[in-house]
Structure formats: C-alpha cells, structure tokens
Write a structure and sequence with these properties.
Elements: H1 12-22, E1 29-30, H2 47-59, H3 72-83, H4 88-91, E2 95-100, H5 102-117, E3 122-127, H6 133-139, E4 143-148, E5 150-151, E6 156-157, H7 159-167, E7 174-178, H8 191-204, E8 207-212, H9 226-234, E9 238-243, E10 256-261, H10 265-282, H11 289-299, H12 301-331, H13 340-343, E11 348-350, H14 355-365, E12 367-368, E13 374-376, H15 385-397
Parallel strand pairs: 1-12, 3-4, 3-7, 7-8, 8-9
Antiparallel strand pairs: 2-10, 5-6, 9-10, 11-13
Helix pairs in contact: 2-11, 2-12, 3-11, 5-6, 7-8, 8-9, 14-15
The structure holds (2S)-2-hydroxybutanedioic acid (LMR).
Length: about 400
Amino acid sequence: MLESLKAIPPDPILGILAAFAKDTNPRKIDLGIGVYRDEEGNTPLLKSVVEAEKQMIAHQNSKSYLGPTGVPGFNSAMSRLVFGESNEAVAEGRIRTVQTPGGTGALRLAAELVKTASPTARVSASEPTWPNHLAIFPAAGLGMESYPYYDPASSSLRLDDMLTALRSKGPGDVVLFHACCHNPCGVSPDPAQWELITDVAAERGFLPIVDLAYQGFERGLEEDNLSVRLFTQKCPELIVTSSCSKNFAVYRDRVGAISVVASSAQKAADIETVIHALTRKNYSMPPAHGPAVIDILLQSAELTALWRTEVAGMRDRINGLRSELEEKIRARGVSRDFAFLRRQTGMFSFLGLNVAQVRRLREEFSIYTVDSARANIASFNGSNIDYFVDALAEILESPAA
Ligand code: LMR
C-alpha cells in the first residue's frame, strides 16, 4: 500500500533551514525561519526560563499522566497573559484555556473545533498569511479563502479593502487574524484600526480566531493582546491560539495554548470537554515539561519581572536592527526606499525581491530567505549586516549577468 506514496517537497520554511545547514560558506546568513537571534547569532535560553526550569526539576516527583488539560496552573496563567489580568470574561468563567503542543497544535485544535461545530464552515485568512495556516485548516477538512490585507506597493495595510471584505462575512463564517507582528509581512493594524475591525466582527457575527504567536514583540505584552481584549468585549465567541515559542524562547519544547471564549460559563465548560475529546484523538494529552516551567515562572513575581525585561530586550533589539538596516541600505546608495522597515514590527518584513533575486541572494551570497523574500530581521548582527547590505545593493542595482 505504501508504494503509492510519492516524495513531497519540504515545507518552504523548514526546507530553507535544511539547505542553510548544508551550506559551507562561512559568511552565510539565515533569514528564513522565525527564531530570535542575539548579537552572536545564537537563539539564547532566557535566564528566567533557565531558573524556572531548575526549580521545576528540583521539585518534580512524578512523570505520571496529567490528562488532557495538562498543567492547570499554566492554563490559568496563560489566560491572564493572553486576555489581560482584569478581563471580565475571565472573571465570568467564559474563557477556557488548554495547553497544546505549540501554537501549531492550538491552530490544529481550533480547526478541528470549528469542523466539529460547523463541518462546512470556511476560514478566511489574510492575504498573505503564514503558509502553514493554509495547510492546517484544510488538513482538518475546512475550506479556506482570503481577505485583502497587505499592499506590496506601499508596504502597508489595505484597511478599507479588508473592512469591505469582512463586512461580507456573517454568522457561520470564520476569520483568522494575527494579533501582532504579522507573519509574513510585518504590518499590523494600529489600535484605532483594531477598533474598526472588531466593530465589524461584532456587527457581522462571524467567529474570529486570533493567532497570538509573538506577544511582547510588537509594542509590549499588554499592548499586543489589544485585539484579543477588544474581540472579547465585543463578540460573544472567540478562539485564541497562543504560542510560547518566541516570547519564552522555548521553541523546541512545543508550548502553546488554545483559549475559547463562549457566551456563558456553562457553554465554555461544554466546549472544553470537546477540546479534551479532540486532544485525546490527536495526541492523547499535551507534553508537560515546558508548561510546568512556564507555570513556575509566571507564579513567581521575581522571575516574571526578569522575563518581562528579557522580552523587552528582544523587542528592542529587533526594532534597533530595523532602523540600522534601513540606514545602512540608504547610506549604501540603494535607490529603493526601505523606510517601511522602521514602520513594520516583529521579526519579519518582505524585502520586495522577486524569486530570481531571492535565488541570486542564495546562490551568489549564501543568504537564505523563503521565496516570498520574507526576511527574519532578528538574524542580523554587527558581523553580517554590512555583507547583507552589499549583497542587496548588488542584486538591486546590477541585474544578473
Ligand atoms: C516561521 O514562520 O518561520 C515560524 O513561525 C516558524 C515556523 O514554524 O514556520
């Protein structure tokens, strides 16, 4: 039977990771996968996480099964982080948060929850969106469509077109949003724009799903959950998929959560039983190690304060790199305007290169981006930024031989 299976190409983002690992050029730069990197090019452990992990290991006395809810303290701490400390819906018991294997696990459960509730529902995602969104929802049997979002000509948000598209949605439709640090384009709605978007959601009655993968990387931990708080205030139902990969730097530990806001505490409790059943069918129960560490971290005022400083440090470094890159490109005499780098936020921006230019960057300079020319800005540092700017100038100013 298995003879019928044909090889399929690697996922575009993970494929770049593998191609980069094989490249022997000492000057190579990986602008592909979205991981934070420090000045030395490493993806460091956070001090707050290391300390919490030591405490967790010192106190753990069993690795027996926990059940589909996982670590209860983690789930309530994540609810407070994702929805804000004094969210009324939390107090009313209308929110249930359950840990998942990473944000991707949360998205898959969200897709299956929608499929269970409404088998013919279609999910609308921003154009463009994280490529894996386009795989996860159909894998659960849901159709997908897109709404206008990014304007490559101005490197900014197509707000009016987006609102018009959202006004055509209604009850039974599902719309996926990125809470902050839009992946891949780096353009996110500002607070006034989120008010307009969430007003349309309330008027039209579609189900919002908010993907919160970069909380703390745009403007701050509280600022970055604004859309979640607004949807919760204005809409009776909401799903949030959150990831701890980036803001706790626990990428490989696979830590995330799905949160569901329902119209009543009883309905939220009912929905949680559906999440448990879906969990059991998929992977039985979530891994406990990462959530147990984050539970300890978030229960400790001292470690939480340290962690907040570390998140701010990562955000500030990326924003600093955005300005530095824009300045260096301008100083190098590149005629194209890269001022958008400063206006955009988070790890990613599109460099505005076509596929042939992306290939030249890779083949002539060992600089790796995905074919969309999405670049991970966090990968730049004092040792590689000038090499990159020279390569970019060469690609843009002198056509291939
Ligand atoms: C990315 O977009 O590079 C990250 O979210 C990592 C991934 O799994 O794709």
